[in-house]
Design goal:
alpha+beta, Helix Hairpins, Heat Shock Protein 90, 3 domains, two-stranded antiparallel sheet, 7 strands, elongated, binds adenosine-5'-triphosphate, binds magnesium ion
Length: 377
């Protein structure tokens, strides 16, 4: 049991306690013996008047003399046991004091500290509970801090992305207000730029709204059963004009038998719109976009892929973070907000599925696993 390290002072206290207890016991024994002798050799008058009591005393005296060693041994053993019991009690108090000291130390801000006394029995349970409590409190605090930090980041990002278009809106409208133009064409051009920038801001705000909405796990889905093949072909068709302009070919590959799936159609459409427009926008040097859907067990695996420049490994891990954009696309001014994939990931998660990205020199893939049926909430 003695695993806890005692300080010199505490050790001193224990030794002192032992000596004091033994001494007290010794004096008590001596006192009792003296008293008994006194009674035997000069019995008080009242004792002699009660013959039985006097007999008992004399009888006891005889036994005492005959079994002297036994009496001595018993008395010593009793004294030792009593001392041990007192020391043990004192030692437990010291353990408790140690635990309290450590608790104060933790409470004063040393949250990575743990009580590491190796105890047994009740004390061990207490220490383990305290350590578990500290552990979970620290985890909760860290989580809180992380959330706080990510909120700050969100605000920083949003302010930055709103300020850029806002600055040019103010700039161009300012030119018009100060009459710094030479023709009506100039005015029209300035207004057009300001208008485009305002639209860009609206996209950001709408996306942000959508993002916070789909982030909440309680967001209700409007579930409908749909034929995935038809749905994907329809969405791909809407991109024909854009893909033609980019000289990229869009193909949809689905199994012959219809693949029926339960989804929130609007939300899933949003996911595919983003994935396909990303492929067209960022698949630099690419010539095709392919969308493949297949049924595996109780889920549909849908892949949106394109050829072209690969996404660097480091960026792959960040793609689904809000506002993340691979550096070149930021500087390229391709115009996105970097929320598309974060929204897509949340929407897929709301459906009980998951999405990940892979990229090599031949192909960049976004793979989704979606359950065919939704569990009724
Ligand atoms: P938004 O979709 O909100 O308009 P965005 O397209 O920039 O903006 P995401 O859809 O989240 O944002 O994509 C994040 C980044 O991932 C893109 O900026 C781009 O750098 C990279 N990316 C996404 N898809 C591809 C792809 N198919 N090929 C190469 N890079 C891609
Ligand atoms: Mg996008």
């Amino acid at each position: 049991m003695l695993k806890m390290k005692l300080t010199k002072k505490e050790l001193g206290e224990l030794i002192f306690e032992a000596i004091v207890t033994m001494t007290i016991m010794y004096f008590i024994y001596m006192g009792l013996l003296l008293l008994f002798n006194q009674i035997v050799y000069s019995p008080p008058a009242f004792l002699l008047e009660i013959p039985t009591a006097w007999d008992v005393v004399q009888y006891f005296d005889l036994i005492l003399i005959r079994f002297r060693t036994v009496f001595l041994a018993t008395a010593t053993m009793f004294a030792v046991l009593f001392t041990w019991w007192r020391l043990n009690r004192r030692y437990k108090q010291m353990q408790l004091r140690h635990i309290l000291d450590e608790l104060h130390y933790i409470a004063s801000g040393h949250f990575d500290h743990r009580i590491d006394a190796q105890l047994s029995g009740d004390m061990e349970d207490v220490v383990n509970s305290i350590n578990t409590l500290v552990e979970s409190t620290v985890t909760a605090m860290e989580e809180e801090r992380r959330i706080e930090q990510s909120k700050d980041e969100l605000i920083t990002n949003v302010s930055h992305d709103i300020r850029t278009p806002l600055t040019s809106i103010i700039g161009y409208l300012g030119l018009i207000a100060d009459k710094q133009y030479s023709s009506t064409e100039d005015v029209e051009r300035y207004i057009h730029i300001a208008y485009t920038k305002a639209l860009q801001m609206k996209v950001l705000v709408d996306d942000l709204f959508e993002y916070t909405k789909v982030r909440q796990t309680s967001t209700p889905l409007i579930i409908r059963t749909l034929n995935l093949g038809n749905f994907l072909e329809q969405i791909a068709a809407e991109f024909e004009l854009e893909s033609g302009r980019k000289h990229m070919d869009i193909q949809v590959e689905v199994t012959a038998e219809p693949l029926m799936i339960e989804v929130d159609v609007d939300k899933i459409a949003r996911v595919f719109n983003n994935l396909i427009s990303n492929a067209l926008k960022y698949g630099r040097g690419g010539t095709w976009v392919r969308i493949k859907a297949e049924k595996v067990g109780s889920e549909a695996i849908i892949t949106v892929m394109n050829n072209g420049e690969r996404i660097p490994q480091a960026a792959l891990e960040e793609l689904f973070n809000r506002f993340y954009r691979v550096e070149s696309s930021r500087s390229q001014q391709t115009g996105g907000t970097g929320l598309g994939l974060a929204i897509a990931q949340s929407i897929i998660a709301l459906h009980g599925g998951y999405i990940y990205a892979e990229s090599n020199d031949e192909v960049t893939k976004f793979v989704m696993h979606l359950p065919l049926q939704q569990i009724k909430k």
